[in-house]
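Worked example 4.2. Below are the chains of a multi-component assembly; read each line carefully before continuing.
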Amino acid sequence: MKHWRNFDFQLLGIPAGLVMFGVFVLFAISRWPTSGVTISTPLHQALYASFGLALMLFLTNFDYRLLRSLAYPLFAGSLMLLGVVLALGHSANGAQRWINLGILPLQPSEPAKLLLVLALAKYFADRERTIESGSTVMLSLFFVLIPVAMVLAQPDLGTSAVLVAIWIGIALMAGVRLKHMAILGAVCAAALPLAWIGMGHVKRFQYMQTRLTIFLNPQQDPLGAGYNVIHSQITVGSGGFLGQHFQQGTQSQLGLLRVEDKDFIFSVIAEQIGFVGVLVLFAVFVVLLMRIARVSFMSGDSYGRLLASGILSMLMFQTFVNIGMNLGLMPVTGIPLPLISYGGSSIITTLASFGILQSILLRHQKLVFAPG
Amino acid sequence: MRKKTKFLFLRISVILAFTVLAGRLWYVQVVMGSYYKQQADTSKIRLEPVQALRGIIYDQKGRQLVWNTPSWNVEIVPHGIPYARATSIYEQLAALLHNQPTAAEIARTVAANRWRDYAPALIKPNVSADVAMVIKQLHASLPGVRADPSSVRGYRWDPQDSLAHLLGYTVSIGPHTYAADRRLYPVEQFLNSDQVGSTGIEAQVDPYLHGINGTDQVEVDAGERPVRVLKKGTSIPGDNVYLTIDWKTQKQVAQDLSAALAQLHLRKGVAILEDVHTGKIISMVSLPSYNNDWFSNGISTKRYASLLQDPAHPLNDLAISGQYPPGSTFKVITAAAALGTGVADVNRYIDDTGYIKLCSVYDPATCRIFNGWQPGGLGSLNIVGALARSSDIYFYTVAGGNPNKDPNMPKIGGDRLASYARNMGLGSATGIDLPGEMSGLVPSKTWFNHLPVGPLRNPGETWHIGNDYNMAIGQGQNLATPLQMVNVAATIANGGTLLRPRVVDHITGTVIPQKGALRSPKVLEPFVPSIVRRNIISPASLALIQQGMHMSVTPLPYGTSWNVVDPRINAAGKTGTAEDSSGNGTPDAWWIGYAPFNHPQVAVCVLVPNANAEGAYVAAPIAHKVLEDYYHLAPLKKNWLVDVQQMLVPSAGGAQ
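Applying the procedure described above to all two chains together yields the following structure tokens:
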């Protein structure tokens, strides 16, 4: 049964508001002559967002339980797309991440995140009884390791981390034993030094190593690899308590910051709206994430519950890592700020996930008694 | 964990994550805010662009034709100019530069560059080392002003400036164009002090010549002057371009053409040599010319105005953009059409009586006389003789018939003749790799009858037999460029293949335009002959036309090209004398041909516009000398210039 009165207007209004704010910021950036961003960027973003909203409404109306049976084929499809990127995707910023579809350069790793949520949720929902067994946990790792390997080969460290975060979020909510999680964590920690050495030897992975060492000491190459780390902090810092209110001559307008429409859009925002403004933005994000947690809590079945928690961990991890890297807390990994950074694949995927959340909400009550 | 605990955990982790972020934000924006703000204002590390050296242009034999000469640019970094002192700085600088530019102009340039506050804006290119040193010493009183090393183009020079049109020249983009045209000159690829090709080869292959600029990491002082280089960025020099031109031949041809023009008291002339098998242009001279160093050194307005106002228009490359009626040289095309359509064969003889008199069928008293160039007539001729002796009567008759003798006489007609001319490459640009080529004009019956009434067509006028006649001898509305005509000669010489003429032989280097750079240099654009059309004329027809052109190069009093007779060269060719179709100029003298007759190698075209003289007297001896230059032969006659004569063209009648 579908009940439209359970529709959550906050889950529509907040994402839409954030998208509009992002388009406004992109428009402001495009007006600065120093930036490489042109007017077509906000226009494209608005176009992608309207497509994303349409998909969101479609998915709202679409019974999420049907997604359960579609989850594996969709996930297989996303793996194929990742394979295509590896085979013929073309290079942007030193990484192969795109398939050119004409109007929309598709970045398959974006939908892959959401499709991993669908598949993992199904996997764990199907195995509620055996969740405490080690083999269930081991098998679930395949879902995440295959796309992680393909995304790492692009090479894209950030997205791989998001995929792992999704797994952790869903696994914890599904009730995997903490002992198993601890063992896996220990294995990963033990493998790190090996991975580090391996990275240094394979050319396409060296950039990751550079980014991680630069994170620890950006002054090592202030105008090369450490450039964005230093300049994003200078940009955020010069916003001060109240911000610069999109006036002339600010740090972000000097053209010193790079990828200011994607990875580092937060720095631009922070400089312009200042500490107070960013706190408001944080509050909006917290409310939004809480609403998603509420969906997980309300869900009538375990599939819906795991879907919502997967989406929650996906969005929370991305938001945290993106803002963290703008503030010098996290290494630069090329993760977009959900709903605000420029990028068609990212915004469409994010808006689609809100559609799924609404679908869960609309169907969480099995029976409703007519009032009176 | 129970369900409720899990959700508590979820909520707490959201709050925790944002608390961490907010804490860090507090530190960066509030605690360290003033520190970062100061860093933003006083950050003295800049990314300094390093100009890539432009590629070099060589001739066919690898002789260097252009140089990059070190020079000094005066530049201003707008950010370094203290607001309060701006006016006095501009005035002081303008005084140093002798008011070129003035203080007001400097202020405008700086304003135009405000959008890139930290990037140097070009104020004056190519100042002397003395001025540069003074500016360097005055750094305390001239903050923001810099003298930076750069380079300007220097071009190989000869007294006739014979390479100017081919090579073209470069100009600095300058902050104004740079700011205005960000699409054409993206900041990632171009600096406002970059030189870009404006005409000629410099413009044609600019993306190859330009190279890839690099970036140095530089520490600057408070006046935005570099103090020391922290990290050297690499710039990648542009590709080298090898031309098909042979510089020695080019220089010699220009010298001879210039001497002949001096003899005639004329200034305009064109001479082209083309390899008949490949379409490579060996030499292409258009006079008068100009010195391209004037432009690369920043041409003065006065000198530029005088170039523009010169009635001989030295900036125009007549070889590719001069459009003239081809006159009798067009008869080779009429001959091809006559043979191709079956209107004539080797056995058809036409009696050249010196004129054709056409009378109206309705009113036999209304007659018009079409003269040949020889008042007494040349006698009975077949196609070979008609070409050799340049019989106007013969070509009038095959093109338009002679209704007074026989109304049903076969004729080519204006439309068929036009399609042969177009097949030979007239009426459209040849596609040479140079900017500014013109396409000429091939009239036709259909085209004419659809023309709006105007300067070319009177009210009620339709294409008539007189138009056929005029077209047959390259008069009327016919217009061709010298390049098109040399290509016609090459097509006849090589057996009927129309080639696209080319001046770039190959390009070598590492820079691939719009793509990036290779690790090691290689040939990027190898020359491949480019065929426009094959088998334009049947071998049998071609043999007759070649024979006619060969017979033209026979001693007086037979062929019209007696001035080219030279057994060492054994040329074939065709003279042309074209009356200016606009009616306000004197006739143009043409010669087209090729050599040697048996195994053709090189096609020639010589044009002396408004020579007021026969092609046979003016263009043919120059063509002979040009061929001697090509083969590096000693002059056949000690004083060849005596052959160049201004035999005034009679006011009425056809042409040789």
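Take a moment to check your reading of the output against the notes. Chain A touches chain B through 44 residues (CB under 8 Å). The beta strands of chain A are 90-92, 95-100, 105-106.
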